[in-house]
Recover the amino acids of this structure.
C-alpha cells in the first residue's frame, strides 16, 4: 500500500491499526514502510481515501 500525502489528513487512524506496525508518522506526513502484506485494513479505515494499492 502507498499513502497519497496530498489526500492524507494525518488523522493517524491507520497507524494504530496496522497489524505489522509499519505505518509511521513523520513531521509532515504519514508513510508506509517496507513489508506491507496488503491486508487492506488501513485502506478500509482511511477517512480521506488516501491509501491505495501500489501498481
Ligand atoms: S495493508 Fe495492512 S499491512 Fe499493509 S500497511 Fe495497511 S494495515 Fe499495514
Ligand atoms: S487513515 Fe488515512 S488520513 Fe488518516 S493518517 Fe492514515 S492515510 Fe492519513
Amino acid at each position: 500500500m502507498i499513502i497519497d500525502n496530498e489526500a492524507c489528513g494525518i488523522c493517524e487512524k491507520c497507524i494504530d491499526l496496522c497489524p505489522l506496525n509499519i505505518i509511521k508518522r513523520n513531521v509532515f506526513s504519514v508513510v508506509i514502510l517496507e513489508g506491507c502484506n496488503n491486508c487492506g485494513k488501513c485502506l478500509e479505515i482511511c477517512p480521506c481515501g488516501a491509501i491505495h494499492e501500489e501498481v
